[in-house]
Amino acid sequence: ERHDLIHWLHHLVDRFEMLVKDRDVSFVRRFSQGPIQVDMDSDKMTQVLDNIISNALKFSPEGGTITVGAELKENEALIDIQDEGQGIPIKDQHKIFDRFYRVDKARARSLGGTGLGLAIAKEMIDAHQGSVWVSSEPGQGTSIKISLPLASSGEGCESNG
Ligand code: ATP
Ligand code: MG
Question: Where is the signal peptide, in residue numbers (predicted)?
Answer without folding.
Answer: none
